[in-house]
Amino acid sequence: MTRKESTATRTPTAAIRRLHCKLATITLLCSGTLSKRHKLCGHPNCRCATDPAARHGPYHEWTRRQNGRFVHSVVSPEQAEEIARAIANYRQVLGLLATWKAETCRLLDLQTKRNKQ
Q1: Residue 47: in which H helix or E strand, if any?
Q2: Is the pLDDT of residue 76 over 90?
Q3: Which of 72, 83, 99, 113 is deepest in the core (most CB within 10 A)?
Q4: What is the model's pLDDT at position 5?
Q5: Burial letters for 75-106: b for 16+ Cβ neighbours within 10 Å, e otherwise?
Q6: Residues forming beta bridges with residue 72, ordered by sequence position
């Protein structure tokens, strides 16, 4: 194997190792969306009935799919911060997995080309 071929096959492997290290640092992981809502209470004499700025809230709602159905939960502001981090981690993991897949394909292509020679 020439020096050029050795370097070419090492690059995807090193990239995959870096991806493993990044994935190992992630602890919390969940999908879904987090929203902040203000609501009307329905009492006609309440300020929220006439003034949109006086609506009740904010209420943090976490929406996700479980067993093929949407589930909505009202969570505390502290829980909302943690859920927001977990959702960001989930999106990061999806990106890392896509990169891992591409690097794996690249590595397999290089190995196939090397075996044909």
Answers
A1: none
A2: yes
A3: 83
A4: 45
A5: eeeeebeebeebbebbeebeebeeebeebeeb
A6: 63
